[in-house]
Amino acid sequence: MPDGTGRATRFLDYFFAADADEAWIAEYLAWDDQVGVEDTALVERVQRGLGAGILEGGVLLPESERLIAHFDRLVADALSESRRARRTPPAVAPPLLSPKAGARDAAPTSGQM
User: For residue 63, what are the CA distances in angstroms to 57, 58, 69, 85?
Assistant: First the structure.
C-alpha cells in the first residue's frame, strides 16, 4: 500500500482453521516470509528505477500477473461507476432512515418527525 513518496506499507492477516497443523502453519509462514523478502527486493529495485525517471509506467505480464490485472480492472470499474453515479442524479429520492426503529421508510410520517 503506498505510504507517501517512495514508501509502501504492507499488512498481512492470516486465518487458519482451529484444527490446522501447527507444523504446517510454521512451514507456510516461513515460506511466506521468504516470498515477502524476495518481493520486497524486487519492488525496491523497480521503485528506484521509476524514481530515476527512466520509465513513466510499466506493463503487467499477462500470465504471471493475472490477479493484479484483475484487481486493476475491478478498481477501474469501481471508479468509473462512482464517477457515473456522481454525475447522474437519482431517479427517486433515497429512502430515509427511521430514527426510532432503524428501519428504512419511503418517506417520514408525521409521527416520526
Answer: 19, 15, 10, 33
